[in-house]
Amino acid sequence: MSTKEKTLWIIGGVLIALYCLAPIAWIISLSFKAPSDLSNAQFLPTTASSENYATIFTGSGSDLFLPALRNSFGICLIATFISCVLSMFAAYAIARLDFPGKKFILGTALAVAIFPVISIVTPLFNLWRTIGLYDTWPGLIIPYLSLTLPLSIWTMSAFFREIPWEMEQAAQVDGATTWQAFRKVIVPLAAPGVFTTAIIAFFIAWNDFVYGISLTSTSASRPVPAALGLFSGASQFEDPTGAIAAAAVVVTIPVVVLVLLFQRRIVAGLTNGAVKG
Amino acid sequence: MTTTEARPTGASVPARAAKGGASDRAKAERKLGWLLAGPALAVMLLVTAYPIAQAFYDSLFDYRLTDPENRSFTGLNNYLVVLTDQLWWQAVGVTALITVITVAVELVLGFALAMVMNKALRSIRPVLRAAILIPYAVITVVSAFAWQFAFDINTGFVNSWFSWLPGVDPTTDWFGSFGSSLLVICLAEIWKTTPFISLLLLAGLAQVPEVLQEAAKVDGATWWQRMRRVTLPNMKAAIMVALLFRTLDAFRVFDSIFVMTAGANGTETVSFLAYRQTISRLEIGLGSAVSVLLFLTVVLIAFVFIKGFKVDLAQARGEK
Q: Where is the ABC transmembrane type-1 domain (chain B) (predicted)?
């Protein structure tokens, strides 16, 4: 590659990175603006202030934000765990066994994945009120499975299909017991796929907004995106912009950390599930 | 299916005891398969098929939560009310407009991104990959707020930065009219979801055989010719899958609308209409009818894609 071509590709790369990161940089910058600075019509704050973070962690916004953060973590982790366990079994069956329901299960997963979430909200809203699941953790965990399960099944069965299952028999021939062969050979081979699927499922659950605002009413179960969307300031004289920006930065930190640590795996998981299956 | 029908053995015969008979083994395998995959399938059906059936049932009633005593059967009247109301068609129009604009831009932009990533030097590839995953992983609500605050007349910087553009000055209220609101909504959606498309396209690009590219080059094909005759036809399946997923996803747009305009200035989408009927107005009957209609529209779009454009998911997944 010539130097000129090299420079061109680097410029292209820098442009892409700018495009991807600019809105994040903006919301971070906004979160450090003091209230008097909010309308300075500039990208950067005049002087950095941590006032907004104080508002959401210890100040007037804390009784809204902190429970929401706890709810989000709890609900998303439980939903991710359940869907990973269920799809682990399903994906094993799809990748390794020959049975007629395979196509039907993958087809159902696809249909559920394209399902308009809002269509389920109306009946669930009504049902949850009747049976007492409205505004509870299980009341969100159950519908979250409709978001995380289909994707987990597709992604994980794509990963499992690439595992060289013959290695299990090879280990047994070499004298390993069934359990040893499973634990020492299959688990290390399958673990990355399960782990990647868990990350992607967590992203999807973490991102939910529709269920969050429709099926909750108090801080007993309201997750962060819903709390953010409905946050309008402690009083009508207080501009919530700074507090929202600070809270937005806080909920973005976990996903950014996951992306930085596991970017290669996430890309493999996303493309495997959709393109290669 | 290659599995042959098992000969009628007694159900009491344990599958494990079968002496290697192919049919018994197939039967046992089938049983194990359903046993393992059954729970996941059951949960999926329970959380979607059951609610949508319930929604269809509810949509046949005139039913307000605030007035449960007067719940009465009205047949398809709710559908008639929705389909003859201008609100519904306005929402469908806006949703379709957002879908077409965002998906078209995302496809072109995503393809450009994929090309750069494909050619990018090894040294900067990890950086690019991490950067491109950030918009995908960021919560939609956060992205919507970021874009809203940037364009907001009080807190934004866009008006002062772009005041050299005709029609933009410090008093430009982007959320004051239909067109400009829609523009900001589309920008936010495009930013958030282009990375996903570009990753799918990148995977498609990687599947185009390098040999074909080389051969075309030797034969003297220009860049554009190679693109049109070699690259694009070979990644048609990947493009179609990306298009299908994104179209259906875009048609459900809700979060950005809720945060940015709450449906003001005629920017209400179908999802938002359904939400407003049920959660704000507690009109379970009407809300259910809108939900069912949205569901049917999505099914129709998927059907058109799969039958009309012959999107072959099995082929895209390299099973043929």
A: 92-305
| A42-56 residue pLDDT tens | 788 877 788 888 888
Q: Which of chain B's residues have a Cβ under 8 Å away from the Cβ of A93?
A: 32-37
3-class DSSP assignment, residue B68: strand
A228 to chain B, any CB pair closer than 8 A? The answer is: yes
Checking if the pLDDT of B230 tops 90, the result is no
B91 touches A at CB < 8 Å: no
Question: Distance from B33 to chain A by nearest Cα, in Å?
Answer: 5
A114/B248 Cβ within 8 A: yes
pLDDT of residue A275: 54
Q: In chain A, how many domains are there?
A: 1
Is any Cβ of chain B less than 8 angstroms from the Cβ of A85?
no
Q: Does A92 reside within a domain?
A: yes
Q: Using CB atoms, which residue from B130, B237, B274 is nearest to A122? A: B274
B162 in contact with chain A, both atoms CB, cutoff 8 A: no
Please tell me the pTM assigned to this model: 0.85
CATH number for position A155: 1.10.3720.10
Q: Where are the domains of chain B?
A: 18-73, 85-316
- Phi and psi at B235, nearest 5°, equal -115, 25
Give chain A's end-to-end CA distance (angstroms, integer).
34
Residue of chain A whose Cα is closest to the Cα of B291:
A119
Residue range A70-98: average pLDDT?
Answer: 90
- The sign of the torsion formed by the CA atoms of B7, B12, B16, B20 equals negative
Mean pLDDT score across all residues of chain A: 84
B203 touches chain A (CB under 8 A): yes
Which residue segment(s) compose the domain that A121 sits in? Answer: 60-276
Q: Is residue A23 part of a domain?
A: no
Topology of domain B85-316 in CATH is MetI-like fold (1.10.3720)
Across the strands, what pairs with B283?
A: B64
- The per-residue pLDDT for range B3-54, each reduced to its tens digit, is 444 444 444 444 444 444 567 878 888 888 888 888 888 988 888 888 888 8
| CA B99 centroid distance within chain | 10
